[in-house]
Amino acid sequence: MVEQINNEPGVPLVEVSESPRDDGGGKEVDPSMLRRAVIASCAGSFVEYYDFAVYAALTPAIASTFFSETDRVTGLLSTLGIFALAFVARPLGGVVWGRFGDKIGRQTTLVAVILLMSLSTAAIGLLPSYQMIGVLAPLLLVVLRILQGLSAGGELPGATIFVAESSPNHRRGYFVSWIGVSITCATLAGLLTAALLAEVLSTESLNSWGWRIPFLLALPLGLVGLYIRVKLDESPAFKLARQAEATFDSPLPEVLGKISMYRRMTVTGLLGAGAFLGYYIMMIYMPTLLTSELGFDSGDGLLAICAGGAAIAILGPVMGALSDRFGRRPVLVSAAVGLIVLTYPCFLLLDTGSFLAAVGALIIIAIPVAAGQAVYVTAALERFPTTIRYTAFGISYNVFGLIGGTAAYVSTYLVAETGTIYAPAFYLIVVAVIVLVTTLRVRETASRPLESA
Q1: Distance between CA 86 and CA 92 in Å, rounded?
Q2: How many angstroms separate the CA atoms of 169 and 312, rounded?
Q3: Rounded Cα–Cα distance for residues 383 and 406 (Å)
Q4: Which of 63, 204, 348, 370 has the smallest number of CB atoms closer than 10 Å to its CB?
Q5: CB-based burial of residue 266 (10 Å sphere; 0-12 exposed, 13-18 middle, 19+ buried)?
Q6: Longest Cα pair distance anywhere in the chain, in angstroms?
């Protein structure tokens, strides 16, 4: 059966063949291949987010290594700024890797991406300090963070697309949601690694050499992921497009040369804004808020965050499965409403100073965050055809991902300027309102075959 669908208002109709239980190419899905696709995609995403979590958790040690110790606040803000810089580089990475992914294939591109990510992360652990080479130290850190940002710009879009194109239509949301589980587990692993080092090492040892260990660990982790990805076949949907000679030598004109595509990328980016911001406030900024602003012991703060992170990881596949059954829109609407309604009360609980209240608050806010994180990427990539999916989704995801990448920096600034710890909560609520309005305007894409062209 041929059906006409229109993903967004104002976007031309696209014809697709309906085959809800195959891979989009009329063939039954191979469970073994699907399993390998999920594992390989999760492995690369784990390396990416492990690095970002480690960097955020070890910000004070990194600041003391790469910046002058005469101005601690400036050093911390500069280090957080470099953290955000990797997100600024991501859109360019989305363009570069998206072009390769749509031209030569998903599998080959993902192999190159994880290699660059692993090498640039490990290289940070080998950099000399400010005391050794002066201003060249932070400059080298900037270069490596840009390389990380470029590789990250192709990682999650490529990984989620690879899984989506390898999944049956009626279970796509569930399988893609496992990448969100790997992201959360990687973030927790990074935070716990940093906490363990802080526990077993003196502050002097941690600042001088201990902080380097987690970055060096990225190399063996990346090599494992590289090995898994090298063994993969290409995604069925891209194979079909290549066999039909439907791929473009340069997909960029098809993406950036059409007004309707800008609209589509903007809409898909806004769908994920709440998930971006909520996740990064909860997992990256929260350690600073709990210890520096609310006076929590670092160990208690970490345990509370781990409880919230575990809730996100557990709920992710549940939310993905619900989106397959009831649709992407209902789950995303519920996530936005949840952030609007629950964020401020959860900050009130945090402000009590009670450990149990903090655990409860982070578990509660984890529910809408998990719903948004698990479902957004599937809902977004389903809005683009196979021939330009990597490029278009990569640009959209990475541009709007800046909302998450700057969350810690903006939240720190807002608290400092307003004098209230509730400023990040209001920031998240405003973004969630925008997400809700956007989500209510888009059409459902669950269980439909992916657009082929």
Answers
A1: 11
A2: 24
A3: 26
A4: 204
A5: middle
A6: 70
Distance CA 77, CA 282 (A): 19
Alpha-carbon distance 284 to 189, whole Å? 13
User: Helix (H, G, I), strand (E, B), or coil: what is residue 30?
Assistant: coil
The three-class DSSP label of residue 26 is coil
Q: What angle, 0 to 180 degrees and rounded to 10, lies between the N-to-C axes of helices 172-200 and 136-166?
A: 150
Hey, what are 366's tokens? Answer: 């984890």
Interior angle at CA 157, CA 154 and CA 159, nearest 5: 95
SS3 384: coil
In 206-327, which residue ranges form alpha helices assigned H by DSSP?
212-230, 236-243, 252-256, 259-271, 273-280, 286-288, 298-326
Candidates 392, 382, 391, 398; CA nearest to 100 is 391
Q: What is the rounded distance in angstroms from the CA atom of residue 447 to the CA atom of residue 429? A: 30
Confidence of residue 139 (pLDDT cuts 50, 70, 90): confident
Burial (CB count <10 Å: 0-12, 13-18, 19+), residue 166: buried
DSSP state of 169: G
Contact 285, 342 (CB under 8 A): no
CB 138 within 8 A of CB 78: yes
Query: Between these two residues, 189 and 82, which has the higher pLDDT value?
Result: 189
Does residue 73 surpass a pLDDT of 90?
A: no
Instruction: With CA atoms as reference, report the closest residue to 160 among 366, 380, 3.
Output: 380
CA 302 from centre of chain: 21
Q: In which element (H, E) is residue 17 found?
A: strand 14-17
* 2-10+29-236+257-441: CATH superfamily: MFS general substrate transporter like domains (1.20.1250.20)
- Look over the chain and give the mean of its residue pLDDT values, rounded to a whole number: 85
The answer to whether the pTM exceeds 0.90 is: no
Q: How far apart are CA 102 and CA 386, in angstroms?
A: 8
3-state secondary structure of 240: helix
Q: Is 291 left (phi over 0), alpha (psi -120 to 50) or beta?
A: alpha
Cβ-contact 90, 153 below 8 angstroms: yes
- Distances in Å between the Cα of 310 and the Cα atoms of 16, 305, 428 are 39, 9, 21
